[in-house]
Amino acid sequence: MMEQRRFGDTDLVSSALGFGTWEMSTTEYGHIDVDEASAAVGAAIDNGITLFDTAEAYGPYHSEEILGCALGARRKEVVLVTKVGFKVDGTPARDSTREWVLARTEGCLQRLNTDWIDLLLIHWPDHDTPFAETMGALEELKTAGKIRHYGVSNFTVEMMEECERHGHLATNQVGYHLFDRRMEAQVLPYCLEQGIGFMAYGTLGFGLLTGAFTPDTTFEEGDWRSAGDAFNLPLFEQGALSQGAALYRAIENARRARWEVRGATGYRVGAGPPCAVGGAGRHTQPVGTRGERGCCRLEAYGRRAGRDRPHLCRGGRADLRRCAPGGIEKRRSAHAPAVAGCTPATRLSPQSGLREKPGRPLGF
Fold first, then answer.
1. CA–CA separation, 215 vs 267, rounded Å?
2. Distance between CA 353 and CA 195 in Å, rounded?
3. How far, in Å, CA of 229 to CA of 46, rounded?
4. Residues sharing a CB contact under 8 Å with residue 5, sequence separation 6 or more, in sequence order
5. Which of 58, 190, 201, 301 is catalytic?
6. How far is the CA of 208 from the CAs of 158, 230, 316, in angstroms?
7. Which residue in 9, 242, 277, 319 has the most C-beta neighbors within 10 A?
8. Does pTM top 0.85 for this prediction?
9. Is 176 a catalytic residue?
10. How confident is the model at residue 320 (pLDDT cuts 50, 70, 90)?
11. Three-state SS for 60?
12. Residue (of 74, 25, 87, 19) closest to 49 by Cα position
């Protein structure tokens, strides 16, 4: 049976594993088989996944439309999450003003073919709009019954603190995987302390930890990973691809040799749940399709979902510590080996084996 998790201190509960739909945008991951992606939605539900995450910016609009059609009469079986806060027509810009949030939510409801949204997130922080105004709009939507809960995505601790003065966040969704553990420094501890859920996206390194890539992998036109950069880390440059392939092999070897699994085959979605789950006891989202190209095939769901939670024995944890950047516990040192191809001008990310590029962390 799929493990269930509660979002922070709310009454919202869903499967620990979620189904992300950035790929279903059809515009940012190269060619996507829409029919297969739609069929995967039903297969995921059949195997115990009840958390589905999308956004109006994915496409834009395509992901919400495809997901709404794919869910159909099964809408009531799932926890539906979407995001607003972008101007997606014309020049992209962030907009979390009251008028924009209210209007865009109406569009989300229509595209998803639903009367309510279980969890509405502000996709990225809007630095030109007071958080008090945005939180007020979210409270209006909740009072009107159009959303059950609300939260944020890609917000720092300081931003969440300001939001909490005007309401209560159900969750913060941020990037988190074995190659990017920056959230362990402040965001994850703060969420734990404040009863805020924690949703992790990209937990398979946007495909880097699926075994689908080699050092010679290239990405087709229209695939955002072709630029080599992933949220200010050089995940898809040649050196990182080599490291990702090596890490995947090491994890698979450790799994086969050491991992103890209760009532399961030993496969777990996401190479890093020991660290992705963290100690928060809240909600994480190792995604099934978001950014995990090569790991969302329809026929794979029976093997990868609906299993009891795997547990690592002591030897398996030691193996993973040796092969994973920073191990599976919180990294104590700010010094990690640089990935080939990173220049001395880049800045080391304290929670990652990669070097973070100059500028705002994660684009905050």
1. 24
2. 29
3. 35
4. 13, 14, 15, 16, 282, 283, 284
5. 58
6. 31, 11, 21
7. 277
8. no
9. no
10. low
11. coil
12. 19
